[in-house]
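Much of the work behind modern protein science is quiet bookkeeping, done one molecule at a time. The protein below has been through that process, and both of its lines are reproduced in full.


***
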Amino acid sequence: MIDLHGSVALVTGGAHRLGRAIALALGQAGANVVVHYNRSAERAQVVLQELAALGVQAVAVAGDLSRVAEVDRVVDTAVARWGRLDVLVNNAGIWGRTPIGTVTEERWNELIDTNLRSAFFAAQRATPALRAAGGAIVNIADVGALRPWRNHTPYLISKGGIITLTEALANDLAPEVRVNAVAPGAVLLPDDWTSDQIERAMRNVPLQRLGRPEDVAQAALYLVQADYVTGVVLPVDGGRRLR
């Protein structure tokens, strides 16, 4: 296991939901954390306070990752803050229901650019610093890319691309940089779901319960620290992909 004390981690979309949990897990392990956000400035400040309470340093960086120039700026800012980058977590993403017949070019581009293109360009921009540090990339995929559900095709394509990106980068960046992915299942459900929808989601999980953001964060932390693991997609789904 790799000691993260003194290391630097950039978590995209790190101000809330899964990103917040991952940022805090990295901070608990001793890493200094760059918290990227787009519109969640107040939440980012709360995460910075939580990280400070853990005894690590942290900064927040804003940026719209659907724009490649913004991706580059965010990564450059992260590297410049401490002069190094050891960990990149490509967590930022959006999703939404898009039945066939309703998908517009604008929505397609928004999903692909934010969820997939940004992860590639962040990894590309971070590669020199990550190589120098012997670092790691963790991408956040989705178990739906392994077992697709209905009416979310563009989103699922973006997450399927994350899986391919993970495996391709693991080849391209070896041996200096390890690249892995976490594929969450039913961890954070939409806020507008009814109790019936939530119960149905749990019934489809062999473990018969929802996951927690901390489950995903601990999987990401493992992949950051596991120095003989690369090119792996780790489902954290309570067995959902089996049904």
